[in-house]
Amino acid sequence: MGNDGTLHLLYTCPFCWKVRGMIEYLKLDVNYHGINGLRAKKELKFVEDWNKVPVFTDANGKHFVDSTPIMKHLDDTFNQGSLQSGSEQSRQDTWLEWCDSKLSKATIPILYGGFFSALSTTRRVSKEEKFGFISRRIYAWLGFPIMWGIIARSRVKKDGRSPQKLWHDLLDEFTSEVGDNAFFGGSTPDLVDFAAFGYMRSISPFKQFSHLTSHERGMAWYRLMMDLVS
Fold first, then answer.
1. Which residue from 82, 132, 195, 227 has the least number of CB within 10 angstroms?
2. Under a CB-based contact definition with an 8 Å cutoff, are residues 2 and 29 in contact?
3. Structural domain tally of the chain?
């Protein structure tokens, strides 16, 4: 365990990327512990009634679950809650919910919405995550038809927009709310910035990220966030 705790995660999980951005920004000494996604229930059995990542365990052994509550805990514990105090609370709560309901659901369509993109994503995930020899091959070939054939296609069909158009529309909405400021939080980022950044950053290891780079305002904000966590 790192001096500040341990984060159980999947390395390609959008919700985990939200927390990772906060950890990097605050320069915390946190150990990343990747789990086998096909054995999540077993590997996370130390947490009562919870079998999803991320899970944060602090230096005292106390567990915290769910990405947004973990972010708030890290901010309260290591940053005097400053990322929660810079914006009007109701506005921040509304846009945190927007990120979790809109951006989170847009990650699967852009990564798995097309046949070849889904196959490429599945193979990349199988290499990035902590799979065993057998489970890696199970995921690579069984995960593909599930993510593309069942989940992603149904979301694309229900929304009616191409995955790229969906992301550009969402970035239009988000950057419009940011306005002339550098960040949603104003001159400095707040929790909403890190939530949105986490979801967008989760796409960056994949070739589909190229579909987002033509959104000038979205990428300008994204690069500012990258500078902060680098």
1. 227
2. yes
3. 2
